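W.,

You were right to be curious about this one. When I first looked at the sequence I had no strong expectations either way, so I just let the prediction run and decided to look at it fresh. Below is the sequence, 169 residues in total, followed by the output.
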Amino acid sequence: MKSFVKVTAALLTSAVSSQQTYGSGSGSGSGSDSGSGSPEPVITSCPAQFSITSFSASCTPHGEGCSFSFDVATNASFDSPISCGASFDDVSIQLPLVPFTLCTDNHTIVWGWAPIGPPNGTATDYSLIIADSALNLAAAKIWDASDYPMVALGATESQIFNGSASFTM
C-alpha cells in the first residue's frame, strides 16, 4: 500500500502544484512516444469515484486547535461511508497541512489536505487528495481560497471551511 500511496501522492501533488494538464502535448495525447524516449503521461477524467459528505474544517479561536472531519464512500461502497478526520492541538489560527492520514474505519483509504501557493506565501487554492489502495483509485479536489476564509470571532479570527459539505470527486 505504501508504494501505491507514494506514487499517487507524487502524481497528484505534481499535477496540482504545477497545474498542468498532461496529455496535451504535440503527441496524440494517448501516451504515444513524443520522441523523448518515454511515453507522455496521460491523465483522464472519469466518473466520480468518491462521495464526500459532512466535510468540515475549522480552527478554534486563540490557537487552541484545528480539526478536519468528513465521511467518504467509494464507488464500490456508496452505501457505507467511512469516517475520516484529524485534529491538531496548539496550531495557529490557520488550517495546517495534513500529511496522508488513514481514515478511521478503513486501512486502505488515506487522505491529505494542503494549501497551494508560493512557499511562505498566502495560499491561492486548497486541495484534498484521497486514495484507496484496495481499489487503485485516487482523486483530488481543488478549492479556491474564498472557500477557506479567515473569520472574525470576537477579538480574534480563525480559518474555517465555508464551501459545500457534500461533493463527489
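Here's what jumped out at me. Residues 46-168 form a domain with the AOC barrel-like fold (CATH 2.40.350). And, maybe more interesting for your project: The longest helix spans residues 2-18.

Coffee later to discuss?

I.
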